[in-house]
Design brief:
35% of the residues lie in helices and 26% in strands. The strands form two sheets. An eight-stranded antiparallel beta barrel has the order 2-4-3-10-7-9-8-5, surrounded by four helices. Helix 2 crosses helix 3 and helix 10 packs across helix 11.
Length: 339
């Protein structure tokens, strides 16, 4: 697939608004048939990497996400990146900096040892790692359920309103189920992590519940914000052919203002504060390197308080927010931050 038309972009935007929206409703909003939506959805999955994944929203909950940077000899990066991508506790595994660095997010329980110690223990010495740094994610300004704006330009406000799920209104009784996600919910989350649009029959089979019970529990988790649906798609097909991670050191008194300003820029997919020598990380998606240069010099550069900036171009993303596709029962990860 070399380009997306208005219907393709509309479907992607619709799924960002409600990952489980029926094809019939999407068709009504886009003024095309249900069959057209279903056919385009299958094509986007096959050719554009489109996938809806259901994820546990861990922001503000137990556990700490760590952003890990592993510097390697060039011959080792591919194998190391693939190894990290297969882990159930990782997301957003990327090759950066000309293929000499691997970036990943690792979700660690609060009572676990630090992420960098865990990785040094688990990754064999022969992997060719020459440097490692781990940065605890402190606060997310943009990321998680908030998507890069490049996928949210296709529909107007009237169309968006028709697609927004009325979870708190239509499922008021379900929202009163305030139980946090439990081990009994894990089978439900496992299925949704592989396919956020899995049918109720699949959810019932995996959990051992009835379809009605599975539907009620999913509605309750969504109404409470415990589960959200993310959309994965090849961003280059939406015009973002250049991606870069931006590591910044910002004067503490200016940190909140700079982060909030970046979160309002349409080029941003992720903005978060971290520990470490750099205290702000962002991901920029631009049409090309010239566009990235303009962004850095004309939009980011004038912001007061940025003391230093490191730009790490992203060469390839091996794993996004959801687990790698695999058979039922495969382990899943449950932290998402970005696009």
């Amino acid at each position: 697939m070399t380009r997306l038309d208005a219907v393709d972009r509309g479907i992607i935007h619709a799924l960002h608004i409600d990952g489980r929206a029926p094809f019939s409703r999407i068709g009504e909003v886009l003024e095309v048939s249900t069959q057209t939506v279903a056919r385009r959805y299958r094509r986007l999955r096959a050719e554009a990497g489109l996938r809806v994944v259901g994820l546990l929203n861990r922001h503000g909950g137990e556990g700490t996400p760590w952003m890990v940077r592993l510097t390697c000899v060039p011959s080792a990066t591919q194998a190391l990146a693939h190894s990290l991508a297969r882990r159930p506790d990782t997301s957003w595994v990327k090759l950066t900096s000309g293929g000499t660095e691997v970036f990943a997010i690792v979700h660690m329980p609060d009572d676990a040892e630090p992420a960098h110690a865990m990785l040094l223990r688990d990754v064999p010495r022969r992997a060719g790692i020459t440097g490692v740094s781990a940065h605890a994610l402190l606060h997310t300004y943009l990321g998680g359920p908030t998507a890069w704006r490049g996928i949210t330009r296709a529909l107007d406000e009237r169309q968006r309103e028709r697609l927004r799920p009325s979870l708190h209104a239509s499922h008021a009784s379900d929202a009163s189920d305030d139980r946090p996600p439990s081990p009994a919910d894990q089978a439900l989350l496992d299925v949704l992590g592989r396919d956020g649009r899995a049918g109720l029959a699949d959810l019932a089979e995996a959990t051992g519940w009835s379809r009605a019970t599975a539907a009620r529990r999913l509605a309750a988790l969504r109404a409470r914000g415990s589960v959200f649906f993310d959309v994965e798609v090849e961003s280059r097909l939406l015009g973002a052919r250049t991606q870069a991670l931006l590591w910044m050191s910002v004067v503490p008194a200016r940190l909140d203002g700079v982060a909030a300003a970046l979160a309002g820029h349409e080029e941003m997919a992720v903005v978060a504060t971290t520990t470490g020598p750099t205290n702000l990380v962002a991901q920029a998606l631009c049409s090309g390197y010239a566009d990235l240069h303009r962004y850095l010099t004309r939009r980011l550069g004038p912001l007061e308080g940025i003391r230093s900036l490191e730009t790490a171009p992203v060469l390839r993303t091996l794993k996004r927010s959801g687990p790698l596709p695999g058979p039922a029962g495969s382990p899943r990860q449950s932290f998402s931050t970005g696009a």
